[in-house]
C-alpha cells in the first residue's frame, strides 16, 4: 500500500515535544518558523547548520526573511524560514512593532507551489506564533488606534489564519504538520472544553481541516513522550493509521502501512 501524505494537526502543552516529533517527518522539511529563537534547537541540533551561501551572503527568502538550512552530509534535512517582527518603534509613548512577518509569510505562500518537488513535508511551527503575527498586523497596521479590546483585531486574524490553514495548506500535496497549543474554554454553565488554542471559535473547527490529529503528551511520571491518536472524554484526536498511544515518530505512525508493503 502506498503511504499517503499525512496532514497532521499536532496539539500539546509548551515543551511537550511538538517540534521534536515534527523533525521525524520525511525530509526535506520546509519549516515556516514563527516561534522565538531558541525553540528552533530541535531542528538545528540534527545536523550542520548553514546560514550563508558560497559567497558568504546570508541566506534569505525573496521577502528578506532569514533562512537556516540543516544538512546531514549532502542530505538537506530542514529549511527553516524565520518570520519574526523584528522592527520596532517608540510611538505614542509606547513600544510598538512595525508588522511585516505575516505579510512576508503570505507572499511566500503565493509561489511555494513552484517548489513542491523539493519538499516531502511542510510544517508550521507554530500556529500560535503565526496567529500573533496576524494579530499584530491587524492591531498596528490594518486597524490601529486607541483600542484595547482584543475583539477589534482577533476576528481579522482568525479569518486570515483560517484561509491559510484550511485553504492554502489544505491544498499541499505532501505531508503537512501544523503545531498548535492546547486551549481550555469554559461556557456559561461552567463546562470546560479542551480544543486547539485560537481566537474565536476556530479551535473547534480546526480538526476538519486535517486527516490526522494528534495530542503530544510529556508524561512527568514516566518521563516519556507519546502521542494520543484517538479521542477520549477530555481531548479530541484521530488517526487512520497510528496505534493509540503511539511513539512520537513518523515511522511508528506508518508502521502498519510499511508492514503491509513488505
3D structure, described in words:
The chain has 262 residues and is α/β, with parallel strands linked by helices. It has a single domain, classed as Rossmann fold (3-Layer(aba) Sandwich), CATH 3.40.50. It has eight helices and twelve strands. The chain has helices at 18-22, 41-44, 101-110, 127-142, 151-168, 202-205, 250-253, 255-261; strands at 7-12, 29-33, 48-50, 67-72, 75-82, 88-91, 94-97, 121-125, 175-186, 192-196, 212-219, 224-228. The strands form two sheets. Strands 1, 2, 3, 4, 5, 8, 9, 10, 11 and 12 form a ten-stranded mixed β-sheet that branches. The protein has a two-stranded antiparallel ribbon with strand order 6-7. α4 crosses α5 (151-168). It starts with 6 loop residues before the first strand and ends with a helix. The mean pLDDT is 91.
State the gist of this model:
The protein has helices at 18-22, 41-44, 101-110, 127-142, 151-168, 202-205, 250-253, 255-261, and strands spanning 7-12, 29-33, 48-50, 67-72, 75-82, 88-91, 94-97, 121-125, 175-186, 192-196, 212-219, 224-228. With 262 residues, the chain is α/β, with parallel strands linked by helices. The strands form two sheets. Strands 1, 2, 3, 4, 5, 8, 9, 10, 11 and 12 form a ten-stranded mixed β-sheet that branches. A two-stranded antiparallel sheet has the order 6-7.
Question: Which features characterize this protein?
Answer:
single chain, 262 residues, Rossmann fold, 27% strand
Order of helices and strands: EHEHEEEEEHEHHEEHEEHH
**Remind me, CATH topology?**
Rossmann fold
Q: How does CATH name the architecture?
A: 3-Layer(aba) Sandwich
Assign an overall shape.
globular
Percent of residues in β-strands: 25-35%
The N- to C-terminal Cα distance equals 9 Å
Number of helices: 8
**Biggest sheet, open or closed, and with what strands and sense?**
10 strands, mixed
- Count all strands and give the number: 12
Structural class: alpha/beta
> What is the CA-atom radius of gyration, in angstroms?
19 Å
Uncertain residue ranges: none
- Name of the level-1 CATH class: Alpha Beta
Number of domains: 1
Helix content: 25-40%
Mean pLDDT: 91
Amino acid at each position: 500500500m502506498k503511504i499517503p501524505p499525512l496532514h497532521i494537526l499536532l496539539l500539546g502543552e509548551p515543551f511537550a515535544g511538538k517540534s521534536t516529533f515534527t523533525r521525524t517527518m520525511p525530509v526535506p522539511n520546509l519549516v515556516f518558523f514563527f516561534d522565538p529563537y531558541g525553540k528552533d534547537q530541535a531542528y538545528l541540533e540534527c545536523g550542520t547548520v548553514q546560514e550563508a551561501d558560497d559567497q558568504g551572503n546570508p541566506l534569505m527568502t525573496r521577502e528578506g526573511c532569514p533562512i537556516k538550512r540543516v544538512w546531514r552530509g549532502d542530505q538537506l534535512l530542514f529549511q527553516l524560514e524565520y518570520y519574526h517582527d523584528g522592527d520596532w518603534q517608540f510611538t505614542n509613548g509606547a513600544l510598538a512593532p512595525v508588522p511585516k512577518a505575516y505579510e512576508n509569510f503570505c507572499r511566500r505562500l503565493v509561489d511555494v507551489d513552484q517548489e513542491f518537488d523539493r519538499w516531502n513535508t511542510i510544517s508550521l511551527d507554530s500556529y500560535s506564533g503565526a496567529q500573533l503575527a496576524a494579530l499584530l498586523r491587524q492591531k498596528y497596521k490594518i486597524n490601529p488606534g486607541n483600542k484595547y479590546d482584543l475583539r477589534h483585531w482577533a476576528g481579522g486574524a482568525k479569518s486570515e489564519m483560517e484561509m491559510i490553514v484550511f485553504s492554502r495548506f489544505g491544498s499541499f500535496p505532501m505531508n503537512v504538520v501544523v503545531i498548535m497549543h492546547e486551549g481550555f474554554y469554559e461556557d456559561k454553565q461552567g463546562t470546560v472544553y479542551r480544543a486547539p488554542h485560537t481566537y474565536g471559535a476556530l479551535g473547534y473547527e480546526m480538526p476538519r481541516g486535517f486527516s490526522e490529529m494528534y495530542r503530544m503528551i510529556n508524561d512527568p511520571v514516566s518521563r516519556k513522550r507519546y502521542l494520543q491518536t484517538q479521542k477520549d472524554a477530555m481531548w479530541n484526536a484521530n488517526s487512520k493509521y497510528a496505534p493509540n498511544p503511539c511513539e512520537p515518530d513518523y515511522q511508528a505512525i506508518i508502521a502498519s502501512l510499511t508492514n503491509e508493503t513488505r
